[in-house]
Amino acid sequence: MTQATILITGATGNVGTQLVKKLVASNTPFKALVRNGDSSKLLKSLPQATIVTGDLSDSATLSNALQGIDKAFLLTNSSEQAESLQINFVHAAHQAGVKHIVKLSQFASEKHSPVRFLRYHAAVEAYIQSLRFNYTFLRPNLYMQGLLGFKDLIQQTGKFYAAVGHAAISAVDVRDIAAVAAAALTSLGHENKIYNITGSTAITHYEMADILSQVLGKQIAFVDVAPAQMEEAVRAAGFPEWQVGGLLEDYAHYSRGEAAAVFNTVQEVTGKTAIGFRQFVEDYKAVLA
Known about the structure:
The protein is of the alpha/beta class. The chain has helices at residues 14-25, 41-45, 59-65, 82-96, 116-130, 151-157, 174-186, 205-216, 227-236, 241-255, 265-270, 277-283, 285-288; strands at 6-8, 30-34, 49-53, 71-74, 100-104, 134-140, 159-162, 193-197, 221-224.
């Protein structure tokens, strides 16, 4: 197999796992950046994958991992240090001569946004542009797979909750995000592009509940709650304060109707129709039922 010139960060997360599947399906060699050799057994078993160790807070380890890399996929876990860690990675990539960064960002990223996560993504995007990389910024909307975090509640009570009201959201399946990322990493024509990635329709959480009821064959209800109630619940679940605040800002953004726009990016980039919410529920029925 030819030498890998693509580096993947976040290869074991929701989007990263699906991206790895896409690269394996096309027999594309890649390097997967992991910390301290702590990689999944699956990655180690893949002939297309080369495991490299590195710490996003340690420039020296990143320098070694980035040698010979032309394109890098940048994704980090949600953390209070996410912006500084991504900036550190971008700096190391620049020093190593990486030509193209495909960054997983977020829908509506903007430096003056009231949502801290959108501000941090915008700051990293701006830094990438300032260093004259070729770039592709992937800005996906709310992940459909985020609903899986409610699976226990759905199974046990037939309900799920959020502070979002009747606002419609053009939620997207992570498999479609990964498909767009794979295209940007393995084909030409995606340089210096910003891709807003959404589902093919915008639906409310009440409509999600209706679809869940139909597919799962039992009554599922969405319960809208006040922001203060959501705050209390996520804090009780053990979320750190920075994440509690960020989630509340995210959902205020959704409830204002700022995440309802629909883009045809998935179809335009991959040639396939974006996965709809009903199909998502069908595919994850065994997990949700």
